[in-house]
Amino acid sequence: MNTPYLNRYRNGEYLQYMTDFLDLLSKQDLQVLQLTTQQETLEPIVAKIDAAFKQSYGSGLTQEVIALDERRDRAIVGLRSVADSYKYHFDKSISEAATALYTNIASHGDNIQRLSYQEETAVINSIAKDWDTEPELKAAVMKLGLENWHEELKESNANFSVKYLDRVDEAALNPLADIPELRNQATEAYRILVNHIRAHATLSGKETYNIILNQIDVLAGQYNQVVTNRSNNSSNDNDSSTEI
User: Fold this and answer.
1) d(Cα 5, Cα 76) in Å, to the nearest integer?
2) Contacts of 6 by beta carbon, 8 Å cutoff, 6+ apart
3) How many CB atoms lie within 10 A of CB 76?
4) How far apart are CA 161 and CA 34, in angstroms?
5) How far apart are CA 105 and CA 56, in angstroms?
6) Rounded alpha-carbon distances, angstroms, from residue 136 to 28, 99, 204
7) Is 239 exposed, middle or buried (0-12, 13-18, 19+ CB in 10 A)?
8) What is the residue extent of each domain of the chain?
């Protein structure tokens, strides 16, 4: 049976999975199946996640954070691509400068733009600091004429950090928006409910329980495939459970 990758679903995916799961259960007579208590524990938590998600996604700060994250992604991907291209330059001095910059970026991983928000901020800060302080890298930036690119990387990352912290402050003022904690509660309630279904399927032998388990298997498989596809392409996979 497929087990949903609950900790890898983005908030919107997580919310939709839980909503679909509850919809499947609503088609059954839960009182007869002795699942009412467990369903009534999970449902209000999912409703809170729904409200918090809508509030968070509708926040002007959230939209600014998304835009600034895309801006810095373009900067770091662009710099990596430029440096990679110049590695093959016929002028050895240019090739060596490009190699130095490319090696510095690559030392932080192949997909910096796919790190979590906090990790990406730290990595870009580290790269920018290296290029400002290490003589070889500083000279390489000037050699390739990448001063404007470098400044764009620093500025976009700094602006992102400011807006991200503003959003954290906004969320802190509204406990309802604590989606990670709500997800923890929902996941625990979900697992208890599924375990009850499995136990009843074993002990009672009623086919209805097996039908529900088969439906969960298909549903989880579909959502897991979304995660797998995202991991196999080059798009931004911030997902972590704490991202949008």
Assistant:
1) 29
2) 14, 17, 183, 187, 190, 241
3) 24
4) 49
5) 33
6) 68, 11, 72
7) buried
8) 6-59+175-232, 60-172
How many residues make up the chain in this entry? 244
Interatomic CA distance for residues 160 and 24, integer angstroms? 40
| Confidence category of residue 102, pLDDT binned at 50, 70, 90 | very high
Residue of 238, 243, 194 lying closest to 217 (CA atoms)? 194
Q: pLDDT tens across 116-145, in order?
A: 888 999 999 999 999 999 999 999 999 999
Q: Is the pTM of this model over 0.70?
A: no
Cβ atoms within 10 Å, residue 25: 20
Say what the pLDDT of residue 199 is: 95
Judged against a pLDDT cut of 70, whether residue 236 lies above it is answered with no
What one-character-per-residue DSSP string does 28-68 give?
Answer: S-HHHHT-HHHHHHHHHHHHHHHHHHHHHHH-HHHHHHHHH
Q: How far apart are CA 230 and CA 173, in angstroms?
A: 33
Q: Which of 62, 50, 163, 146 is CA-nearest to residue 98?
A: 146
The structure tokens 């989606």 sit at: 179
Locate all alpha helices (DSSP H) within the chain, ordered by sequence: 11-26, 30-33, 36-58, 60-86, 92-106, 117-133, 135-144, 147-172, 179-204, 207-232
Instruction: For residues 26 and 194, give the distance between their C-alpha atoms in angstroms, rounded to a whole number.
Output: 14
Asked whether 49 and 13 are in contact (CB, 8 A), the reply is no
pLDDT the model gives residue 152: 97
* pLDDT 10s digits, 193-211: 999 999 999 999 889 999 9
Among 4, 13, 59, 1, smallest CA distance to 238 is for 13
